[in-house]
Design a protein that fits this description.
The complex is a heterodimer. Chain A is elongated and about 75 Å long. In chain A, 48% of the residues lie in helices and 8% in strands. By secondary structure, chain A is mainly alpha-helical. By secondary structure, chain B is of the alpha+beta class. Chain B has an eight-stranded antiparallel sheet with strand order 2-3-4-5-1-8-10-9. A two-stranded antiparallel ribbon of chain B has the order 6-7. Classes of the chains: A mainly alpha, B alpha+beta. The A-B interface holds A 90-91, 93, 101-107, 110-111, 117, 120-121, 124-138, 142 and B 24, 26-30, 32-33, 128, 132, 135-136, 140-154, 156-158, 160, 212-218. The structure holds zinc ion (ZN) (2 copies). Residues 3, 5-6, 9, 28-29, 31-32 of chain A line the site of one zinc ion.
Chain lengths: 184, 341
């Protein structure tokens, strides 16, 4: 969707409010929203300047959660009061961009938008958890974690059985293992 | 020797087995959001992982003439999408032609291995060894929960597409392709015709692949696909037997007419070639034609594709020129066969 003001950039900021059962909305790009805010239009002069003929938004930011939403059902956007929709720190994509493209923008997108992606991923694959192979570094890490887990359980039972010699030995092993995994 | 020039296991039904692994580098946007400088960087990084290994050859793919790029897709060494793209991209090829690494296809890296006949497991081992090579040198995008992080969410998890190219004239004749497709879709597999039509016009060639990549291991995917394609092959052989028993005379006539056309026609278009290929290949598999192997027919088909012909000719040709060159090519390859006996 294009910004209603400049009609050039993609709209990324959305205002929506239902007044007397009538849904009204405004979609702006980040630049235009910022400009409007700087001019004070959005704070008080917004409606008087007349996007919707006045009197619509008395205070557009009074209830950010109610006013500010996105087309994809993102309930409340962090920092909504000030500005922008969440963006991927590596590629700069918003989730809307990704939905339009049908693909992720970069590997980091899957972390940034983990929550938003989950329903799509589960619809495609019927699950959201990987069980297959991994790069060697992750494989080593995974094995190490499993080993630490086993040793911890052993240590617990050694202490319980008052086998202190064995416990000390296990503690040493754990220490060196943890040291390794932290160094990674 | 490329896959189609070698006789594979159970080649009466299994034409080829292919594995593709999608991999990406951390710290770069996905293909499509990359500028030219980053594309070059990625190409160089991937290339450096193969440095000093005489087994592999680097190809500056985007610098190749169009016919050569498309021809590489026609012999299934790279994907059609990869061949069509014009932005900087590169490929790395193993000396035996079985492995090709596409750099900057939809994902930063797509490792592909293709072998003749029924050989999924071997194809996977080849791809996995290249994967290991890359992962020891490069920072591969991976997440403990989602697995390999890929451009499209449909490839998350293993990032693996396993597929088997099957020759199914008996199933086509019995009208069983649609039923097969329905059954496969219920168990997470897909079937695609060579040109998307799913008819005899495709040479009765069908590609069967896994659809899901998350929540299943590589081994599970491969063993499922092997089992299912094994059953499809049994059924296909039963259909062929029935066909030969029920209407052997007509079948024989049809096969021999196709064979005659292949040997003596002076112009053959691609569509006709696909259908002649299917009839003659079936004849060879049923023992109606002796002295040529399935690999000869696979070679004739692949080497007579439009860009292949133009590549070998050394320049563009009109469709009529191609049809002429195709018929000549088919004759030459066939007569080579009888000389060998
Ligand atoms: Zn704007
Ligand atoms: Zn991103």
């Amino acid at each position: 969707m294009l910004c209603e003001r400049c009609k050039k950039n993609e709209a990324t900021v959305f205002y929506r409010e239902s007044v007397n059962g009538k849904e009204r909305s405004l979609s702006l790009c980040a630049d235009c929203a910022e400009k409007a805010r700087k001019k004070g239009e959005l704070e008080d002069g917004f409606m008087k300047n007349g996007f919707f003929g006045g009197g619509f938004f008395d205070d557009p930011f009074a209830d950010a959660d109610k006013l500010f939403g996105s087309l994809f059902g993102v309930k409340s956007l962090p920092g909504a009061k000030t500005e922008k929709v969440k963006k991927c720190s590596l590629c700069g994509a918003t989730f809307r961009d990704l939905m339009n493209e049908g693909k992720a923008g970069c590997p980091e997108c899957y972390r940034t938008f983990a929550e938003e992606f989950a329903p799509t991923i589960s619809r495609i694959h019927g699950t959201t958890s990987h069980v297959g192979g991994a790069p060697s570094a992750f494989r080593r890490n995974r094995e190490q974690k499993e080993k630490i887990h086993t040793l911890e359980a052993e240590l617990k039972s050694a202490v319980k059985e008052e086998n202190y010699e064995r416990a000390a030995q296990l503690r040493d092993e754990l220490r060196s293992l943890r040291g390794e995994s932290e160094a990674r | 020797m490329t896959w189609y020039e070698t006789k594979g296991r159970d080649s009466d039904v299994f034409v080829s087995s292919r594995i593709r692994l999608a991999r990406n580098l951390n710290d770069y946007p996905f293909e499509g959001r990359l500028d030219d400088a980053s594309r070059r960087e990625i190409i160089n990084k991937v290339r450096s992982a193969f440095e000093g290994d005489g087994e592999y050859r680097f190809v500056d793919f985007s610098a190749l003439p169009e016919n050569e790029r498309i021809a590489a897709a026609e012999e299934h060494k790279v994907s059609p999408e990869f061949a069509r793209g014009t932005a900087a991209r590169a490929a790395i090829e193993s000396s035996d032609g079985a492995v090709s690494v596409m750099i900057l296809e939809e994902d930063h890296v797509r490792i592909q291995s293709i072998l003749p006949g029924k050989s999924l497991k071997e194809a996977y081992d080849r791809a996995a060894s290249v994967d290991g090579k890359l992962d020891s040198k490069l920072n591969i995008a991976y997440d403990d929960k989602l697995g390999y992080l890929t451009h499209c969410p449909t490839n998350l998890g293993t990032g693996m597409r396993a597929s088997v190219m099957m020759f199914l004239p008996g199933t086509v004749a019995a009208g069983g392709i649609r039923t097969l497709a329905n059954q496969l879709s219920k168990i997470g597999l897909t079937v695609r015709g060579m040109s998307g039509e799913g008819s005899a016009a495709d040479g009765c060639l069908f590609q069967i692949s896994n659809q899901v990549t998350l929540g299943v291991t590589e081994e599970e995917t491969i063993s499922k696909l092997s089992d299912v394609t094994g059953k499809i092959a049994e059924q296909e052989r039963a259909f062929r037997k029935k066909l030969a028993e029920k209407d052997g005379e007509r079948l024989n006539d049809r096969v021999m007419r196709a064979y005659g056309t292949l040997m003596y026609a002076t112009m053959i278009d691609t569509k006709e070639l696909f259908s002649l290929y299917a009839d003659v290949r079936l004849g060879v598999c049923l023992g109606l034609i002796e002295g040529i192997g399935t690999e000869k027919l696979d070679t004739i088909l692949i080497r007579s594709m439009p860009a292949m012909l133009m590549r070998d000719h050394g320049g563009n040709m009109t469709p009529a020129e191609r049809d002429h060159a195709r018929a000549e090519n088919v004759r030459r390859l066939l007569s080579g066969a009888s000389r060998e006996d």
